[in-house]
Design a protein that fits this description.
This protein has 514 residues and is of the alpha+beta class. It has 15 helices and 19 strands.
Length: 514
């Protein structure tokens, strides 16, 4: 049993290293950072009596009466804790080297704003989320609608001490229905909490570390508004967050560095002796311009967005391995300069993926995926191009799932300005779509010669990642994780090399005819 000021008065059963919450009573406003020992003894005694009598309501009243009459020293301690946390946060933003950040615990609790028993349903239920860290760190909090989500961003941190989101079970009356976490970008760890009803941000704050707990960030959300409360905040950044975020390297610059990272100089005499004239002749044979073509390989999903999961495979991991193999093969040909949108486990918003291609002046973008279907008999690779009208129902459903990635990771879609619909852009898109179509045909030819494909291997739908107005773009589904034979192939390094080889041949044919 313990007193936790970040979650109100909480009675816990300690089982190993995990705590099973039995009750969470609504007396948080009376609690303090370091309660008087006598107060703790009295509270424990009252809790025991209440459990023996089975009276939750009388317990709430008794606790309220007891704690309300506590000493003035105890009543002011929580304010002191909040002030200490502010001081720690200000010191942390000074830019000094600090120990690696860890998220030590994540707690989701419930209390009722009107003081009712927590076991009774209430229109004014309040959900409290607490993130406990091993040190002070800047953070950002905001809410999003459709669906209802609470977002908490932190600097990249170690989360190995946390239970996986799949282990979370929503207790009756608890507002938080599900949560997930992962890298939103390489330097930002994002937590997304989902709600099944409209919510607003009620209050938030920090508590300083003490002997029992680390630095804590707490957020209260409510399902109903009280006219006596101030208007809810929907976006908050702590001191130091804007400085931290502004110092981050733009994603397109990170992508630009991937070409240098993967292109390692060899010490072989034959490689060193190869003249620029020989290189130029090789390029000329595969390109009408003789210039090195710039190719963007986009590994789908990543970070907080795992993509499909089936038969022990996780899509974001599989496609990153294939993207790296394709990049390696293309670079080895000396005919292409290749960039990866991501070379690690982090997420990139869909629109930013093709914006990276535009910033790097790419000649083509290839987004790599591995999907699943309810029909486990369907297998084989597919190549997709952009169309607002899908070629078939399955393609439309796939595009809908892929396009939903931004919503799942808590991307604020309002940050993106809508595409300007002008005659020039429409004409550019039509020309780009024709090039994408030609490239897709080349891919289908080589895919059918080398790997299993769907009967109709070229399909089309409204994929957001393919919506660049000036860069030909393809989405390559290398197989279905729902099919046992495809799963065996997806796991094999030999199959990865085969896929990378056919991508090289298809691109050679496409650029030779361009």
């Amino acid at each position: 049993m313990e007193l936790d000021t970040a979650l109100g008065l909480k009675i816990e059963l300690i089982i190993g290293s995990q705590a099973a919450v039995v009750r969470d009573y609504s007396v948080q406003k009376y609690l303090v950072q370091k309660p008087h020992p006598l107060l703790v003894v009295v509270v424990c005694f009252v809790v025991t009596l209440a459990y023996a009598s089975g009276s939750d309501v009388s317990l709430g009243r008794a606790l309220g009466s007891l704690v309300a009459n506590a000493s003035a020293q105890n009543a002011s301690a929580q304010n002191a804790s909040a002030q200490n946390a502010s001081v720690q946060l200000a010191q942390a933003s000074g830019g000094k080297a600090q120990k690696a950040l860890k998220v030590q615990d994540l707690r989701i609790g419930r209390k009722d704003a009107n003081g009712d028993s927590p076991d009774a349903p209430s229109a004014k239920a309040v959900a409290r989320v607490v993130l406990e860290l091993n040190r002070v760190a800047p953070f950002r909090i905001f809410t999003l609608k459709n669906p209802e989500r609470l977002i908490v961003d932190l600097p990249n941190a170690d989360t190995r001490q946390l239970l996986p989101p799949a282990a979370y079970k929503q207790e009756p009356g608890t507002l938080v229905s599900a949560y997930r976490y992962g890298l939103f970008r390489p330097e930002i760890l994002r937590f997304v909490f989902e709600f099944k009803q409209p919510i607003s941000l009620l209050t938030h704050g920090t508590l300083a570390a003490n002997k029992q707990r680390g630095f804590r960030i707490f957020i209260d959300t409510t399902s109903a508004r009280d006219a006596r409360l101030p208007p809810p905040s929907t976006n908050f950044a702590s001191k130091g967050w804007k400085k931290y975020e502004s110092a981050l390297t733009p994603l397109w610059q990170k992508a630009a560095k991937t070409t240098a990272k993967a292109t390692k100089k060899t010490s072989s005499k034959s490689t060193k002796a190869r003249s620029e004239q020989t290189r130029q002749a090789t390029r000329q044979a595969y390109s009408s311009s003789g210039k090195v073509k710039r190719v963007i390989i986009d590994a789908g999903h990543g970070g907080i967005d795992s993509g499909a999961r089936a038969n022990g495979l996780v899509e974001k991991k599989i496609v990153l391995a294939y993207a790296r193999e394709i990049a390696k093969t293309l670079k080895a040909s000396a005919r292409y300069k290749v960039f990866l949108t991501r070379d690690g486990d982090f997420f990139i918003p869909l629109k930013q993926r093709y914006e990276i291609a535009q910033r790097l002046k790419a000649d083509i973008l290839i987004s790599v995926h591995a999907d699943y279907l309810k029909n486990k008999n369907v297998r084989g690779a597919t190549i997709y191009t952009l169309s607002e009208v899908a070629s078939d129902r399955e393609s439309a459903e796939l595009a809908s799932r892929e396009n939903n990635a931004d919503v799942l990771v808590g991307q604020n879609l309002a940050e993106f300005t809508p595409d300007v619909s002008t005659i020039l852009i429409d004409l550019a898109r039509k020309s780009t779509n024709r090039k994408s179509w030609r490239a897709a045909k080349k891919f289908v030819t080589h895919m059918k010669k080398n790997i299993p494909t769907l009967r109709s291997a070229h399909r089309y739908a409204g994929f957001v990642v393919l919506k660049s107005p000036n860069i030909p773009s393809l989405l390559l589904e290398i197989g279905y994780m729902s099919n046992a034979k495809d799963v065996r192939n997806l796991k094999q390094s030999a199959f990865r090399k085969k896929v990378a080889g056919l991508v090289l041949m298809a691109l050679d044919d496409y650029f030779k005819d361009s």
